[in-house]
Each structure stands twice: as C-alpha cells, then as structure tokens.
Specification:
Blueprint lengths: L7 H27 L5 H6 L3 E4 L8 E6 L2 E7 L2 H10 L28 E5 L10 E3 L4 H4 L6 E3 L6 E3 L19 E3 L4 E4 L7
Antiparallel strand pairs: 1-9, 2-3, 3-4, 5-6, 6-7, 8-9
C-alpha cells in the first residue's frame, strides 16, 4: 500500500467508534445533569420555590407548597391594606415583636412590598390551615371584620398581614417565610439571599 492509499475500513471503524463513544458520553451525562436539579424530596425539605406572581389578580391568593406546608401569596388591594391599618388596635402583636418573620418583613404589612403578602398558611395554635375570608364575610365574622384569615378548627382570626387578633387561641402571628423578589413578576420562597 502506498502512502497515498487510505485504508477506508479503518476510517469507518474509527468514525463509528467515535459516534458510539459520543452517544455513550451523552447517555452518561443526562442522568448526571438531571441529578443537579432539586428532587421532590429536596423541595419538600426546603429547597427554594419560584413563583410567577404576575398571574395573581388584585384581591386574589395563590397557594404553593414549601417544606411540605402551604404558603399563601396574596396580591392585596388598597382596601385590604387599609383594613390592616384599621385592625392595629385589635391584634395581639401589632408591631410584630415576636420573631415570626424575617427582619425585612417586620413592618406594618409584614412584607417587602405592601401589596404582596407571603405567609405560611398554618395556624400557630395547633397547625390547622386557616381560610381566606374577605371583608364581605362580615355576616359570618362580625361587623368589625376587616378581612383576613379564619381558622375554623378553634376560631383563631388573623388580619391580611397575618397578625393574630386578640382573644384568638393562636398565640402568635402567622409565619412569614424567607423570600425575595426576582424582578417584578417573580418571587423565590425559601431564599432571601442578596445574591452575587
């Protein structure tokens, strides 16, 4: 065989080996890359959860799961915010002195932005899940009801900031989980780091 002649069978074998090796490498990389995503178990254990809040209309609430618990995200209206202000004298912890929220949510509305509320939807009395009750529920809740959450298990009442009304069996306000905004339309629950 001269220097100019090429053994085509060896070339086909080398190309075939390269293709098979590439397929094998891809097949091995897919599960590896997939293992980098948080599993359902990791999410339940506390992995951060990202939520698109652009679809929550004013006055509506979206429920998501974080650490196996319901988390309420409420797009509060001006009327809801006004109701929180009116409720100040009726709540047990109006200044949120009990540490049930991150420091950045230790304000009148217990939130980063007044209109967006993020609360763990578990009653601080015995762990039941309260119900959303608008201001229109005065017939059931009483004429001084400004809207909020009601736990039907034992009668605890919370305003739209998650502050417990005095006289309720619940000892403390609802928990505000760590969260942060990622742009105007998304929040991440379970992560309040500032990032790089």
């Amino acid at each position: 065989m001269s220097d100019q002649e090429v053994d085509k069978s060896k070339r086909v074998f080398l190309i075939g080996t390269g293709v098979v090796g590439g397929i094998a490498a891809t097949a091995a990389a897919v599960p590896f890359a997939g293992s980098m995503l948080p599993s359902e178990r990791a999410k339940a254990a506390g992995a951060p959860v990202e939520i698109d809040i652009s679809q929550i209309a004013p006055g509506e609430m979206k429920v998501v799961e974080w650490r196996g618990k319901p988390v309420w995200v409420v797009n509060r209206t001006k009327e809801m915010l006004d109701g929180i202000t009116k409720t100040d004298p009726k709540v047990s912890d109006p200044k949120s002195e009990v540490p049930q929220q991150p420091e950045y949510a230790k304000n009148e509305f217990r939130s980063i932005k007044p209109e967006i509320s993020v609360l763990v939807g578990v009653c601080t009395h015995l762990g039941c899940s309260p119900q959303f009750k608008s201001v229109e529920a005065k017939g059931d809740m009483g004429q001084d009801w400004e809207g909020g959450f009601f736990c039907p298990c034992h009668g605890s009442k919370f305003d739209f900031a998650g502050r417990v009304l005095a006289g309720s069996p619940a000892p403390t306000n609802l928990v505000v989980p760590p969260y942060k905004f990622v742009g105007d339309a998304k929040i991440i629950i379970g992560d309040d780091s500032k990032g790089a």
